Amino acid sequence: MERIIEEIREDLSRRIAVAADRLADRTLAEDPAYAALLGRAELRERIHDTLRQAVEGLLRSSRGLPVELAEARAVGALRAEQGLPLASLLRTHRRGGRLLWQSLTEAVTAHDRAALPRLLPAASVLWDVVDRIADAMTESYRRAEAAHGDRDRERRAALLDVLLDGADGPSAAAEAAAAQLGLPERGRFTVVVLASEVTGAPSAAPAVAVPPAPAGGPGVASAPRVLWRFRADGEVGLVELGHHPLESVRDLLAPLGVRAGVGPVVAAPAELARAHRLAALALRTAPESEGPRTALLDERLPAALVAAQAELAGRLRQVVLGPVLALPAEDRRTLLTTLGTWLACQGSTTDAAQRLYCHRNTVSNRLRRVEQLTGRSLSDPRHVVELALAHSAVLQHVEAEPVTAPGPRTSRTPGGTARRSPRRPA
Q1: Backbone φ and ψ of 229, nearest 5°
Q2: Is 294 helix (H, G, I), strand (E, B) or coil?
């Protein structure tokens, strides 16, 4: 086989050149990815080089030598960097393999038709060489693509950090970062902060997979665009709301079953650092004991005020609820839970009793005890505000210093049968 190829080498070279012309024209006509990336002269030269490499690989294989694959790896890495789809690269390569075999058989036929049977063993060798070259290009392409993806992710993370952690107010850095992320100069934006327990251990599968926003379509409203920043202490999302209301973020996060804080709506990317800080503050108003929920800052401003002033919150706890906090654990828990439930029920003793699985008079008696201990009247709006803020300060303090949660209690129904009642958040 090697002797036959050497005898037809000159004719084969001419036929390979013609094959490279034909394949370049066909590729540019049928593959828009190649047409957008390369001119005819460059593509034809690359195809010609690959065909010649395949011939040299065929000769080396027939001598028992390894096929040289360095150039194939270089081509694979280059095409990945250029953004050419791998399918396009491999399709053109395999078409080239077929044209090479056709050129080889035509050259042998023109030189000595009787030699054709001696060429047949070369078919399997040639396709083995074509496959090895394809494998080398594919491996190099995927390595380069992965490295390129890592660089893109790192670059986007750095741009998000500029917006989320930068100084307040317009800056050239913020404007440049927003432009590179494709954000408009003016619009409606917010920031989402997910609780750190979402991310899970690095070696395990993530506890929560954040879904991409569904694409819009006929009759279907597209969801807000979210750019996620993954950090060791949690995940942060930059949300481009567009025309969507802020409450739509709650719908977006609801399937995840996570605790999240949502900042206010801001009008420019330069204001996102402030929105980020306020989103983190909103998350602090949603204790883990309350379970998965999305806390919108604008709906939890009193609790956010408490969370923002740790020292004053401590004074508030002691001055307003100090006597309650000094009670034995079970009494303290009962009174705080009852007060929190009554506040959540907008001051309705009846609704609070239903939630707590007890009689309305029991709730009234507990609330009177809170009034006696604190010196605050639940009929005085100013005292109610103090008690509500102090109760929020207690919840946040317990969240910051977690203790073992009590189990469900067993109460008695009017008929005397035992009933387990769930622990309700205070």
Answers
A1: -120, 115
A2: strand
User: Cα–Cα distances in Å, from 303 out to 142, 150, 299, 308, 335?
Assistant: 50, 40, 9, 9, 20
- Mutual angle of helices 86-111 and 9-30, in 10-degree steps: 150
Prediction pTM value: 0.54
Helix 310-325 with 360-374: angle, nearest 10 deg: 110
Residue 245 sits at φ, ψ, to 5 deg, of: -70, 160
- Shortest CA distance to 397 belongs to which of 323, 321, 307, 330? 307
Which of 169, 172, 143 is CA-nearest to residue 272? 169
DSSP H or E stretch at residue 414: none
Q: How far apart are CA 27 and CA 36, in angstroms?
A: 11
| Model pLDDT for residues 362-389, shown as the tens digit of each residue | 999 999 999 999 999 999 999 998 898 8
**Cα separation of 376 and 282, whole Å?**
28
Within 13 Å of residue 139, how many CA atoms lie on the same side as its CB?
11
Q: Which of 50, 45, 42, 48 is nearest to 76 (CA)?
A: 50
- Specify the 3-state DSSP secondary structure of 56: helix
